[in-house]
Each structure stands twice: as structure tokens, then as C-alpha cells.
């Protein structure tokens, strides 16, 4: 019996013995003053001192710290603080607690001097498969939105409607923290307008993503990474700004991190006022015309907030939940005067339109990560996204005819948008040996939209009644499931990665007319399956030279608005609608990259070729003096070009220059397309094959001025670019800004579009007519932003800063692509 009891006791005690743990404690003082130092980072490394564990603590107000529950083994404890000489302590845990006693940190006068005096943080850096642009280094970004920030990124364009293109191609995917986050081609312009620039850490441009990432967007991916910071203790910042348009912004964020928890919260409010205009000239071959001139005023405000927490269960396991939300209101007024001299047509039409609406969006994600070691991990994530809100527009028109008679019309249109989506991801990574790494995973994205559109017209008796012919309810689902696998590695100076991604997706849509229910309209169904391979080869040459070649297959799927057959009649001279028969556009992309670095200079050269079948393009035709525009798969396309980037640090780093030049040729094959018109006729549309050369250039200059002032200027130019049925004319603009750092304070003064030159012009050619259009918004704006950083600063008594040149302070946590 005693033997059995002894064995049972041994069995109970054995796990405790095998999993013996100890606690490390200590106290940190400033050697010069003898004062306790709070918020000093204390982290556990392996016995070599090279591999960090996710076991982190920070000292309290008395300088004390505790590292609990360390498993038996040998470790190195590192005590790290900006502005101090870091220290290390080797420890050996064997089931007992260890007290490191008092640790005295010495001020590192050299470091303190350097971080206070030295330079301007580089705005751009290069990684293996992407270019990374740091937002904090962009002085002109202060107080701006994500949409405005993208305009300063080389090779990225944002038009007057907030639509984004990359290297002249509008088929680009935009992510937040490496995920879709509910952004679609239908809503991303509005969402990007609401995200405050001060919440963004960096923007990554990936022109040829591997099979690990979504192939959506033939031009590539723009990944917006929100800020994070894992320093121990609490810290944050507050910011306020205003501009000469009467707009303003105010925001605040706070982080609190301990050894087990990373938490953050931030909130930002933006108020904006803008003005814009439009000008259209439609000339017919018989000498007649239809013209318009418009003037608009817009106003809006929005609230953007973020919350999140990460729990480090062990040094190998962590759970996180985070998200963001936005609430916004917008309203505006546009006055447009139309004139014409067409036969049997009004001579003038004065339209006054008003709009107001609300934007409501939310993104929530839950995730778990397990790391067996630095090279072996499993990550899972599930997220939910919602985007919607009511939208209302009114149109009042007064038409004047040749006999001086007038007719008046009034209509109202309401469209409450409602889009929901779920996303799930599983990513597995394992470095199989010294030269081979395996990545595999699953990604599912399931979205659904149910949006009604109701138009009311003023009847002769003075009451508003539903215009049944203009009612529409669009119900749309797009479900995408993907599996991927990649193998990559490095053998001496040669690196490689090859992979394939398989995707299946289902499109379901209904476009209901007035009085119809779902069962009255057959569902439009399409099922697809495709493989998307990728290949990357890279070789490091002597003397800091590197060459890389890669290939990927990508896709541009039609989005909801392009598939919705509803007719938008807000413009009496133009009607737009979608085409439910659209097919996906596939592309093959090849790139050859070369990089050469010197101590103060760098040059990057990228040559690329991109071919596409079933090219999706907007086409237009005339019917009864009204222009109708929709989308169609009209032709094949081949783009080829080169992008050259120079980075130069001159005059002992007093002047930093980043120059980007993009040269490309666009070839569109000849095409012919017959389209049934509203009147029952057939519009025959065609164009011969065409080649067009286009180029754009951008120069960013950072200058260090006396008294700790930094100056930055960005200039850009884009030439004309031909399209299937016309061309987009070129344009240019210049932005500039000043920044002054004073302790925990930062003052930024910037001027956007200094010469009031940011305008968008286009030309459309059709049978019997030519139309030129010009639109603009905002114009010159001068803004001032003041920022104050707080927390975790007591040990930095001499005003030390991080390498951004900003006072220490940040916000948020991201699970972006690492």
C-alpha cells in the first residue's frame, strides 16, 4: 500500500518537477542621480543573447520589475532603455527564484546627443518584394487622410473621386494591416477619406505579390499598416490641426503594455470643407454641342476609433482581438449649368443638386498565433466587416427651350448601403532546413450586399411619388475560397521562392425592379476556378548589387457597381449603369529588378511586362442625344515599362532626395463591340489597335534647416495616357511642409497643391462626337498641426527621441504582413 501511495505521489509530482519555473526580480536606478527609473524595458533572451522570447516586463515607479514563470534553463536578461547604456545579466533557472538586486544604468551621452541632433528619417526603404513608405517621415502628411497620403507615394495616383491607381492601372487591391478589412472597389474611396493619417505607420507597395497573397488587382497591392509599439508602460500622443478651408482634426491615442498584455486605444475626429468644379465639352461632327459647367461645395465630419489587446499566454502562444470603426456625415451642394444647340433639344438646363448621407463602418478581428520557434509558426484569424449607411440626393432642374418656354423637374434618390463580409485565414510557416522554407495556408472571403435604390419624382399635383422605372434593389454575393503553398529559401547568394494559389469563387446577383421579390427574378450565377502561380529568383552580386526576376498571375474581378444594371440618371446628358455579363480579367506579370547601394546613394531599376485578357474598360455610346456608359470586356492589353528610383543623401545628410521615374508603353489590341441601346438600336463601337507611351515622375526633397527645423517638398508630373475609347490628360502638382520638434511637442505647417494645379482631364472619342472633361477638387490648402507625446518619458530626461526624429509616442498594434 505504501508503495502504491509513493508511486501515486511521484506521478503527481513528476509534471511539477518537469515543468519547474522560477521568477526573476530586480531594481533599476539611474547611476548618476540614484533615482529609480520607471518604464525601462526588461526582456528575456536565450543563453546566447541573440534569440528574444516574448517575455517582457517594464520597471515600475520604484524601478522594480518582475519576470514570472520562467521555465528551467539558461537565459540572458537584457535591460534596455533609450539614452542609457544597456546591460545584460545571465541567469540559470532551476526551480528557484532569482533576485538580480540593484542595476545601475549609465546615461549614454553619445546616444543622447545623436538622437537629438541627427537627421531626417528616410521616407522610403526597400524590402525583398515591396517598397515601404514611412508616414511619420512625411511632413506634408500631418492632419491629412489616408487618401491624401497615398497621393504622395511614388507610382500611386488618386483621382478626383478618390479612386486609386498604381503605375497607371486602377486595378489595385488596398489592404489594412495585410487584410481586406471590408474595403471593396465600391467603398474604399470613402473609407480611405475617413482614416486619419496620424494613425498610419507605413504604406507598403507590392507590385508583384507572391502566391501567399490574394491575386486580386492586376497592378498589385497597397498595404496600409496602422501604428504599433510594444514598449513597456503607458505612452501615447494627442494631436490637433486646422486648415484654411475651415477643416480641422483632433486625435488622441494611448498604449499600455505589460509583460503579458499589449493594449491600445485611439480616437480621431476630422472635419472637412471642400470646393470643386467640373467642365464638360461634347462636340458633334455637325458642329452642334452639349456643354456643362459645375461648381460644388462639400462638407463632412467623421469619427474614427481603434481598440485592441494582445495577450501573451506563453512565450510561444498569443491571442489578440482588435478592430476599428468609423462614423461619418457628409453633405453638399452642386450647381451645374448645361447648354446645348442640338435640334429639338433644350437650350439650357440649370440643375441644383444636394446630398447628405452617413457612413458607418466596422472591422473586428480575432486571432491566435503559436510559435514552436522563430522559424516554425501557425497563425489563425477570423474577421467581420460592415460598411453602410443611408445616402440621399436631390436634383432640381429648370429646362429652357427655343420658344423661351421652361419645364421644371424635381426628384429625390435614396440608397441605404448595406455590405457585410467575413474573412478567415490560416497561415503555416516552417523552415525545413537551412535553405528551404515552407509556407501554406487557407484564405476565405465571403461578402454580401443588399442595397435598394429608390427615386421619387415631383408629380403635377405637387406630391412626391415613387418613379417605378428607376427603382432598383441590388443583391450581390461574392464568396472566395483559396489554398496556397510556397517553397522558398536561400543558398549562399541565391534566393528563390515558388508557389501556387488555387481559388474558387461564386458570384450570385439579382437586380430587382419595383414590386419584385427575390423569387420573381432568377438569380444570376457564375462559378469560377483558377490557379495563380508565382516565382521569385534573386541573386546578390558583389559590392552591394542585387538582381531579381519574378512572375505572377493575377486577376481583376468585376465589383458590385460594375455588375449592377441599375441606370444612374443624375446627369441629364449622361447615364451610367453596370453590366452583369462581365467576365474576370486575367493578367500575367513579369518583373526584373536591380538594386545597387552605396553609403549615401541608392538606385533601383525595375523593368516590367504585364499582359491582360478580357480587359475590363468603360465604354460609351450616344442614343437620343444622351451618352450612355457601362463596362465591357473589350480587348487585350499589354503594358511594358521601367521604374527607376534614386535615393541620394547630400551635404552630410543635410539634403535627402528621392526621385522616381516611371516610363511605360500601353498596347491595346483592336476591338469591335455591338451594344443594344435604350431605343432598341445597335451601337457599333470599335477602335483600331493603339500604342501609347506615357511617363510620370516624382521628386521628394527633405532638407535639414537651422534651429531643428525640417523642410520637405514633393513634386509630381504625369503625362497623357491613352485608353480604349479616349485618353487621360497629364497633370502636375507640388506639396510642401515644415516641421519643428521641441521636446515632446511637434509643430507641422504644410501646404497642399501650392500652385492650385491638381486637375483631372480626359477625352472620349465616339461615333460622331468628341467629349473633353475636366474636374477638380479642394485646390490650395494651408494646414497647421500640433502634436504632443506623453508617457514613458521620465527616463529620457534629455529629450531623447526615436529614429523618426519625432518625440517618442505611437499608437496601436498591427497584424500586417511580416
Account of the 3D structure:
The protein is mostly beta strands. The chain folds into two domains: 18-107, Immunoglobulins (Immunoglobulin-like, Sandwich), CATH 2.60.40; 233-790, Beta Barrel (Maltoporin, Chain A), CATH 2.40.170.20. Helix content is 5%, strand content 64%. It is built from five helices and 47 strands. The strands form six sheets. The protein has a 31-stranded mixed beta sheet that branches. A five-stranded mixed beta sheet has the order 8-9-13-14-12, with no helix packed on it. β24 (417-433) and β25 (436-458) form a beta hairpin. The longest helix has 17 residues, at 2-18.
Query: Shape from CA axes?
Result: globular
- Return residue spans where pLDDT drops below 50 for at least 5 consecutive residues: 1-19, 109-120, 793-818
Per CATH, the superfamily of the largest domain is TonB-dependent receptor, beta-barrel domain
Q: Which strand-content bin applies to the residues?
A: over 45%
Query: What is the mean pLDDT?
Result: 83
Helix content: under 10%
CATH-assigned fold name of the largest domain: Maltoporin, Chain A
Structural class: mainly beta
Summed up, the domain count is 2
Counting DSSP E segments of at least 2 residues, the number of strands comes to: 47
Q: Number of helix segments?
A: 5
CATH architecture of the largest domain: Beta Barrel
From the alpha carbons, calculate the radius of gyration and give it in angstroms. 30 Å
Largest sheet entry:
31 strands, mixed
The rounded distance between the terminal residues' Cα atoms is 58 Å
